[in-house]
């Protein structure tokens, strides 16, 4: 698979030596078949002690408290934020192309194309912020039940707002197993994978660039989740999966491209 991103500016830079820390951290926090049982046992132990893990509100009794105005009515963005929920059940109806288009555009698409800057480079503005406007993420789609779109793996090309087909067919059972969400994958419309290539970030910010890539994934994910709510769709963000196996389904070159987030979308 090609690892070329749809960005301006030519070839990708080499990962400098100070990017090794980011690479090591990513590798050592990846789930594999070998450490999956340990991870699941940790989840089970934590679930059994949820009362101890619930957030505790920090209050300083001596500090003054200033009351804030109460919300009067819920509409627009306020209503979307209030209504957003993680709904872990789909009824198996297909996604439409119009809904998919809106999801991708609001997640990471081009929202304006201003005039060229002082260097003559027309930097488009996107739906989610990115450190240094470097945009290290790309978005891949496992289309499973999308009306008008063949089942397969696609890459969202932000500059042209289109899908580039990377492969035909999707191994649904395998994807369900290695995503650790088999029931959802079997009945969803699509799985959207957030793929990070942080080489440009590392060049500019050193190892801290790794953090910026994850922050950007969070910004874009919230856009996707709120858009799903607006469209009446169910969406489930997934941060725990067998990294290299799922990356393989999405056609990633895991030497350079790192899957950091999945969002499963359906009706």
List the helices and strands and how they pair.
Elements: H1 20-28, H2 36-48, H3 50-53, H4 76-83, H5 97-108, E1 110-112, E2 125-126, E3 137-143, E4 152-157, E5 162-168, H6 172-179, H7 182-187, E6 190-196, H8 199-205, H9 209-230, E7 234-238, H10 243-249, E8 258-266
Antiparallel strand pairs: 1-2, 3-4, 3-6, 4-5, 6-8, 7-8
Helix pairs in contact: 5-9, 8-9
When the domains are counted, the total is: 1
The helical percent reads: 25-40%
Structural class by SSE content: alpha+beta
- Report the CATH superfamily: NADH Oxidase
Strand content range: 15-25%
Number of strands: 8
Q: What's the helix count?
A: 10
SSE string, helix = H, strand = E? HHHHHEEEEEHHEHHEHE
Describe this structure in words.
With 267 residues, the protein is of the alpha+beta class. It has a single domain (17-45, 86-111, 125-266), classed as NADH Oxidase (3-Layer(aba) Sandwich). 36% of the residues lie in helices and 17% in strands. It has 10 helices and 8 strands. Strand 3 and strand 4 form a beta hairpin. The protein is globular. The protein starts with 19 loop residues before the first helix and ends with a strand. Residues 1-10 have low confidence and may be disordered.
What are its keywords?
alpha+beta, 8 strands, two-stranded antiparallel ribbon
Offer a quick outline of the entry.
This protein is α+β, with helices and mostly antiparallel strands.
